[in-house]
Design a protein that fits this description.
The chain has one helix and eight strands. The N and C termini lie far apart (43 Å). The chain has a single domain (2-132), classed as Lipocalin (Beta Barrel). By secondary structure, the protein is mainly beta. Strand 1 (24-32) and strand 2 (41-50) form a beta hairpin. An eight-stranded antiparallel barrel has the order 1-2-3-4-5-6-7-8.
């Protein structure tokens, strides 16, 4: 029984250590090609990972446009994230919605070492590239 507890403790410590390896400052590149009537765009913004949580911010909350990326990165590197914010110039938005229209979509990702990738899960196609600074 003591041996089993020791093994479980080692597994838990190793899992926590892998998750902590993502801690730090990251650069996010979000690339969305032309889709339907919306023109494509690429933006970059900073993100921070602490423990299992990721938080990134493009411009200030409430500005048009702006985006906040939040989510969780598991010890195995699998990430589930959400992007919320406000649209900007209508020519870059699906259905050319007016500036200030709410944004809300999911991103599924995978982190390994000092890099990560992600894909938007709904709406227009977008890819995300994460690089640890």
């Amino acid at each position: 029984m003591r041996r089993l507890c020791s093994i479980l403790m080692l597994v838990l410590l190793a899992t926590a250590a892998r998750a902590a390896s993502f801690d730090g400052e990251w650069s996010v590149t979000q690339a969305c090609p032309d889709a339907q009537e919306a023109k494509g765009y690429t933006i970059q913004y900073p993100a921070t990972v602490k423990g299992t949580e990721i938080h990134g911010q493009f411009r200030k909350v409430g500005e048009t446009p702006s985006m906040t990326l939040t989510g969780t990165i598991n010890a195995d590197g699998k990430a589930t994230m959400t992007v919320t914010g406000l649209t900007g110039d209508p020519k870059y938005s699906l259905k050319n919605v007016k500036a200030g229209y709410p944004i809300n979509f999911g991103v599924e990702g995978k982190f390994e070492g000092n890099k990560g990738t992600g894909t938007r899960t709904s709406g227009r196609p977008c890819t995300f590239t994460f690089v640890k600074k």
